[in-house]
Amino acid sequence: MKLCVLVPGLVPGLVLVLALVLTVCVARSPYQAVLQHSRIRGRQQGPNVCAMQQIKGTDKKYFTNCKQWYHRKVCGKPTVITYECCPGYEKIPGEKGCPAALPLVNIYNTLGVVGASTTQMYSERAKLREEVEGPGSFTFFAPSNEAWAALPMEILDALVSNVNIELLNALHYHMVNRRLTSEELRHGSSFASMYQDLHVHIHHYSNGVVTVNCARLIKPDQHATNGIVHVVDRVITAISNDVNTLIDVDDDLETLRTAIAAAGLTPMLESEGQYTIFAPTNEAFEKIPQETLNRILGDPVALRDLLNYHILKQMQCAESVVSGTPMETLQGSVLEVGCDGDQMTLNGKAIITKKDQLGTNGVIHYINELLIPDSAKTLLELAEGSPVTTATKLFVEAGLSPHLMGSEALTMLAPQNDAFKGSLTMSPDMRRLMTNHMLKETLSSKSLYHGQELETLGGLKLRVFVYRNVRSLICSFICRLIKREGGCSVHDGRSCSCVPVLVDELSVVYPVDSPRYCDHMW
């Protein structure tokens, strides 16, 4: 734990700033950090008062952190600041704040005072009361009253029928036979529940959100004489299947299932891990042109890249997302996982149709749109919708389509659209020019070095020059690479404005500031 010293005699205006800094120094977990921040923001209302951010028009509340406090937004929606007693405290009539600690009573009685009276009622109906009133040390992840109210009636009816055995089993799955504070609920941990030792899965995110089986802890650390209660925002269900099995048994994921098997990813999705899978439905695959889909399915490298682009390296429950955050996929590229109100988003688009389908080794979110990474696209597909469509049209007219749609390793030097003035007519010279805008190898900006010699499809030899104080290395490469014999204009690398915009693992597309009518290098 870090130690921080508050020096006496400091300017009073600095006290709040120092208090906020101290939350980082003394907080033992992300949740504790946001709790301390909420206490500091609420202290003007009295002792043990926490500032909460409530999304307007909803009942959803969050302990606040610095970013949310100043932005006044959660999931893109405006929030209002409310104040309530911090966990473990209560009000006294006529006194400011929450000066009194909650009475320390058994778990059954604690349920009645922390917003889980429905769980208390069902505990008595399931004949669990004696157990949670008696000796022992338990952790109870207790669904809030609102969580029970949100449960579909047919599921609730099934739980309370069958002589309450199903209800007892369900409640036992919410319990662990030991006391676990939020401090001990570490990210990626799991604990055997009191129902057939099936595990509950914990995730403790850096933004302070803590989940159990993707249900958010909304009132953690409610202590009792015989354990501890964490109030959660939904009723959780037992999980026993891995994510691959979940995909196998869902007819809506039949195409995905076939693709996973063809790519050889089945063993990975059956193994231990913490995966997040954005699972394209059959409908999502059907939206892709059949020719494109057949090409990807027939290319083992492109297919694996496509599928890995839908898998995150960590488990991300929907309730853990409170703002847009870039997250790395197994393919290596980044997706922005965000939210818009209650909707989870990908790259700013609300394409997630079903959330938090939980497996023993990860979580699945269904999407209705296929995500195709650049590495699974042809050069032609990469260029579509980019700032180089005019050059792409000329490449096609020059008869270079087989190169644009093939799998060979190439680099395209593509002038941006605004580099072309007026209309251009295809001629032998133009065809040769376009051929010399394609290199015979894949080159990213990181692989270039001063003096490097390159060859175009037309057989032209080019050389790389690297200069200081340029926008990017590839920029100086493009702008100073070629000079026409007899006085072709050379752009100064220091003022060059071109930057790479499209990069493909097999092929690279770079926009340049103008077409190069040059036959020889310097």
From TrEMBL:
Record GO biological process = cell adhesion; extracellular matrix organization
Is Transferase there in the keyword field? no
SMART domains in the record: FAS1
Q: Name one Pfam family in it.
A: Fasciclin
List each copy of the FAS1 domain by range.
Answer: 101-236, 240-371, 375-516
- Which InterPro entries does this UniProt record tie to the protein? Adhesion/Biosynth-related, EMI_domain, FAS1_dom_sf, FAS1_domain
- For this UniProt record, give its keywords in alphabetical order, as a comma-separated list: Disulfide bond, Phosphoprotein, Signal
Signal peptide stretch: 1-27
Among its keywords, does the record have Zinc-finger?
Answer: no
Indicate the segments forming the EMI domain, all copies: 46-100
- Which molecular-function annotations from GO does this UniProt entry contain? cell adhesion molecule binding
Q: Which PROSITE patterns match?
A: EMI, FAS1
Annotated Gene Ontology cellular components are: extracellular matrix; extracellular space
Biological function: Plays a role in cell adhesion. May play a role in cell-collagen interactions.
**Subunit note:** Binds to type I, II, and IV collagens.
- Protein name per Swiss-Prot or TrEMBL: Transforming growth factor-beta-induced protein ig-h3
Source organism per entry reads Scophthalmus maximus
